[in-house]
Amino acid sequence: SSSSSSSSGRIHGGATNGGRGSSGNGSAGGISRRELLLSTAGGAPVAAAAAATSAAATTPPVRASPDARLGFEDRVSEFTLPNGLHVVLLRRTAAPVVSCVTLANVGAFDEEDGSTGIAHLLEHMAFKGTSEIGSRDWRSERQALVATDEAFYELRYAAERGADAARLRHLEDDLERLSLLAASLSVPNAYGSVLQQAGGVGLNAATSQDDTRYYVSLPSNKLELWFAMEARRWQDPVFRELYTEKRVVAEERRLRLDASPAGRVQRAYASAALSNNYRRPVIGSESDVGRLGRHEIIDFFNCYYGPTNLTISIVGDATPEQVFTLSERYFGGWQPADGYTKLPSGAALAEAAATEPLPVPRDVAATLDAGGRSLRQMSEAGPLVMLGFYRPALLGHEGVPLEVACELLTGSRTSRLTAELVLKRRSLLALQLDPAYGGEKHAGLAVAFARPANGLSPEAAGQLLRSELDGFLQSGPTPKELDRVKRASMAGLYSALQSNLGMANVLAEYHAYTGSWRGLQHELSAVDALRGDDVVKAARTYLGADNCFAGYVETLPSAVPVPVPTGVPEA
After folding, report:
1. How far, CA to CA in Å, does 401 sit from each of 148, 300, 354, 535?
2. Averaged pLDDT for residues 167-177
């Protein structure tokens, strides 16, 4: 996939190229819940959606009742296996194809300090096959993998204790030799090849701060093959080629972050402006990833990859009875490993998010009331201004009006600030207010990115933007502006309905985040019920000058301007 900035900071890794990660759009299938809800900026779950949790089922699925607003409820079925794995199906019989998404409710935010990047690295490793898929001789390969691990940990131990260069070179040669031996006993890209030879397309995965997703589309008569392959991936994974893949990730990090002016600028900004885990890039730090071995990968997998943290969503030509039978056959006996942790979702996630403090660093909090804090940088990415506003997780009742406010301000050419500052006065070359900088499951930032026009300094552009924001806080939206956003929310839904993969992604995300795919209904209703006063209240609460951390980026001499970034570093 092509390189682009992403407000979710999501990284896409693929099986088509051996699991190598490449940055892409913000969500699997090219559409997110926010993009669906508000066309460009999108919405967030509300408390009512979080309360709509699904009960565990041990009987065949029951179809949902029809709803005139969405029009496809009568084709949605869902069930929960006794082990907690939830499955959602939207039946569409126009073509003999299905799209399948597995959403793991774990992302980079859940990593511990010192182990950053492990969620993304595990996403790469999930395409490496099983003891049966990808091995020429499993008994011999397993022994070679154990020897490779021992060599890695010996090298790590020696490096941390300051061994001399000759000793380290010798240990590096041992690790390389054993890695090559293990590789000779495996079949490269075997997992992906099986699905691709069966007609699978778009086989890929994506890691963000908030979750990790695995997805593919394939002929409907190959659905059982997908179930069999997906079940073995989680119940019998072999994390082969780890130390080779770490070099791939290191190069990815160098290209996307270290060698990218925009990436370096936003990394510094996030680190200075945030106190929670959204401050860290999804791809992790170079030193943390360098220390990761197979033991750490296995421990992270066993801790978080289990049936209650996974949601499977299927859209296409399949029956509820077929999906239920296959789910029970291939996933029914799966039990999590010792030490497994179920992460909050649905109502529990909303409840936990409601108690999170705003992620204001201690040194920043002391000066916010005096007019805010700022970070100044010199970079090839300049000139650029970033105004970041602290906000709670976008899972509570404040989420929808705040995101609607961002849409009203910069979501389209007719939005208030874009029309005035970019198109009419031409003071800015580009402008976007991203409500979910980093992610939306936890407290974070809503960040306005602006590219000053020639001759305007970043500080002057920030003052101009602040002045226009203050005007909106005083007047609020007009009925016409609010109606435009409400109509855009339905347009986003109609757009998503054109894609099986897009809908599979949306249904899985709604279940994981709000407790039910019907969170989509609640959010659409919340948008439709919004009044101007609701939007103004949210905007005044969070978009004020006394809640702002600014970033000003001056252009280095002779630097060539680059496109305005629209999210956290490609990580």
Report:
1. 53, 36, 16, 5
2. 97
Residue 47: the pLDDT is 27
Is residue 342 classed as helix, strand or coil in its secondary structure?
Answer: coil
- Going by pLDDT thresholds of 50, 70 and 90, the confidence category of residue 17 is very low
What are the DSSP calls for 205-253, one per residue? EEE-SS-EEEEEEEEGGGHHHHHHHHHHHHHSB--TTHHHHHHHHHHHH
Closest Cα to residue 277, out of 463, 77, 113, 62? 113
Angle between helices 519-529 and 399-410 (to 10 degrees): 60
**Across 91-113, average pLDDT:** 97
β pairing state of 548-555 and 373-379? parallel
- The secondary structure of 72-136 as a DSSP string is -GGGEEEEE-TTS-EEEEEE--SSSEEEEEEEES--GGGSPTT-TTHHHHHHHHTTS-BSSSSBS
Exposed, middle or buried by CB within 10 Å (0-12, 13-18, 19+), for 313?
buried
Question: Which one, of 377, 378, 359, lies nearest residue 368 by Cα?
Answer: 359
Q: pLDDT grade, residue 173 (50/70/90)? A: very high
Average pLDDT on 50-77 reads 52
pLDDT in tens, 462-474: 999 999 999 999 9
CA dihedral 476, 478, 484, 485 (to 10 degrees): 20
- Interval 449-465 mean pLDDT: 95
Q: How far is 23 from 282, CA to CA, in rounded Å?
A: 11
Angle between helices 223-235 and 320-331 (to 10 degrees): 30
What whole-number distance in Å separates Cα of residue 555 and Cα of residue 485? 35
Q: Give the mean model confidence (pLDDT) for residues 506-526.
A: 91
Model-wide pTM > 0.90 = no
Residue 142 burial (CB count, 10 A): 16
DSSP 552: E
* Distance between first and last Cα of the chain: 14
Residue 146 in tokens: 């154990």
Helices marked H in 449-558? 458-475, 479-496, 500-514, 519-529, 532-542
**Cα 83 to chain center, whole Å?**
25
| pLDDT of 60 | 46
Residue 75: predicted pLDDT: 94
Given strand 373-379, what is the order of strands in its sheet? 373-379, 548-555, 384-391, 444-452, 428-437
Sheet holding 11-14, edge to edge: 21-23, 11-14, 201-207, 212-219, 97-104, 310-316, 86-91, 76-80, 62-63
